[in-house]
Amino acid sequence: MKRIVGIILIVVGVLLYLFFRNYDGNFLPYPTLWFFIGIILAIIGFKLFVTSKSKTEKEIEESYQSEIKRLKENGDKISVEFKDCEIVSSNYHVELPKSSNYRVQAWDSLYDNGKSAENIEINQSRIIYKNENSEDNNVFISPLINKDEITLSFRLSNYKSTVIYVDKLDKDLYYFDLELLDE
């Protein structure tokens, strides 16, 4: 709904801007005011459009949150101490162009002096827990955490343990509770 309102505000704002940009008539008073109202409406509409989530994004987020809630309420709880976990790092480099303009990128690619792109290091880690107490020897892997291995180890040293919630029927469906890292 926010997206539709945003699009309508953008259209109305642009139309007001275009109409009152060169308006010389006497029928509507204060054409400069209407000109700026058009610009403001377009900006508000753009902000509404950009900040609103699409319906599918909301549905996916709600489904994910309800699944986590279901696992927390009904799943088996495995208490995990961080000293028994392994942190695996996955670092890589990405080369991003400094300009978002494709024409500038094309000219830069012809004359590349090494300054047209920026090399950025991406640090990601996962926490792996091998449950050796069960007969299945399950391995639980956390989702990607946007921290390097040292920073994550330091953050986890403040906490002793966490919980993994496992579905009773499907042992491959689990939630590695790392909400303590959000604090």
TrEMBL record:
<keyword id="KW-1133">Transmembrane helix</keyword>
<keyword id="KW-0812">Transmembrane</keyword>
<keyword id="KW-0472">Membrane</keyword>
<feature type="transmembrane region" description="Helical">
    <location>
        <begin position="32"/>
        <end position="50"/>
    </location>
</feature>
<feature type="transmembrane region" description="Helical">
    <location>
        <begin position="5"/>
        <end position="20"/>
    </location>
</feature>
<protein>
    <submittedName>
        <fullName>Uncharacterized protein</fullName>
    </submittedName>
</protein>
